[in-house]
Automatic annotation (TrEMBL):
Cross-referenced NCBIfam families: choice_anch_I (NF038117)
Span of domain Choice-of-anchor I: 59-517
Pfam families given in the database record: choice_anch_I
This protein's UniProt keywords: Signal
InterPro entries membership: Choice_anch_I, Haem_d1_sf, Mesenchyme-surface_protein, WD40/YVTN_repeat-like_dom_sf
Organism per entry: Candidatus Actinomarina minuta
Protein name: MedDCM-OCT-S28-C64-cds31
Leader peptide range in chain numbering: 1-21
Amino acid sequence: MKKYLLTTLSLLVMTVGVAYAAPSTLITGDSNLNKQNIEIKHIKSFGLGVGQPLGDFEAVTEIADFHPGSKMLYSTNGYNSPATVDRYDLSDINNPLLVESVNVGTGGVTSVNIYGDLLAAAVPSSTPTNNGYLKIYNIAEDGALTLAKSLRVGVLPDMVTFSPDGSMIITANEGQPNDAYTIDPEGSVSIIDISKGVASATVSTANFRAFNNNPTSIRKSVPTATLAQEVEPEYIAVSADSKMAYVSLQENNAIAVVDLTTKKVTSIWDMGLKDYRYNCMDLSDKETNIDSSKSKRIKTKCANVRSMYQPDAIQAYEVGGHTYIVTANEGDSRDYDGYSEEVRVADLTLDKAAYPKSLTAVLDTKLGRLKTSKEEGDFDGDGDVDQIIGYGGRSFSIYTAGGIQVFDSRNQFSRITMADGTYQDGRSDDKGCEPEGLGIEEINGSTYAFITLERCSVIMVYDISDPRNPVFQQAVSSEGDVSPETAVIIKAEDSPNGETLLIGTNEYSGTIAIYQINNK
């Protein structure tokens, strides 16, 4: 029988670090960490990776969505060759069944999304630097898929979503370079109009060329590339009125705004830097960061380090008629055979005024392990680094539609996972827990965010009804489910058992976990 961790927050706030503590003890130090309104319990895990060695079925399941009419769950399967969309019967949640694997193409399948009786799949080309495809399927009453339309979109479609009104399908086309960095396609966003039916679907692709020659604060790391080449659209959130799309540009540490009426990118806003002088983190993977006392604390330090937020998944929701954007701040670098920006702090030449000898003397064993960018931080152009800048916010944030941050979870993810023992210290020098996926759902009048932590194998749950004061609810994990990618919420009225369900897809273990959400 699988064991599961349901952490109702255990955390000891200390100046030198955070102590491990048993699950289900109370956390102190933050008023928004102790007001639990829901309780989540593990029901079942299934999939090809169940009972198999970890990593043997990596990429079996990444992105999934649920069809209420047939009670089927559809999941991308990048392990199969050619790639498939796997269809699972969830009519009995205690006994999920794989019904079929549908071949969608030789280039892989990166994302699926469902609206009504349509399933959209993002399918890259077998040559990743060529334009990819959007494939639209009809879902039959029994859940069977029939291809209705295949359309050419931008290069490397990595995420697909329907607009809330169902009139459009939007793909985020990453346009990643090849490993040699000799080919660097442009990133783009494709808008597919299906308002007149799938058979009459039309494709418009919004590019970023208008920003190539404009003075901008948007991050570029390759001097010879244009901004249109540098942007790699990762994820899309659409406003409730289906008029605006917000697109995460992860490597650029930015959000693009797309007008879905004009089908053009109207603006790009920089997300700024997170300041670790006020957000103490563990920035080293070395054992010197483990306290030798009986409490086995992982030491966290406030340091003169900034970090780019760089969200992966983003979602939009409304409060009081205003749109807010929620971001899972994973972090990412450009690291290819032909070009890599990654370098450890110990290999940087640091400005002596900003980083005096007393600090540089311990760089190699502590802060020196942190991965950073060789392209960032030399503000005065004199060849040394005036500011250490790392990757990822190690948090989730909430922004207004105009790009103003109204909330950031700061170091809560690190503190919570250190307290319950799920923190992976080997990732401290990289991007920590790497918040990656994100689901948002209204349950019994409150709005909740479900944030997947890829490297800690935990799903964090917050009440975000007040975007300026989210309230932590629970940290959810189940044994054998490793590297959660996405969180799918099934409403009680659509659920096979009549209760609200949380589905977590787990990339590394190749498993899918079912949880039930109950009111306390």
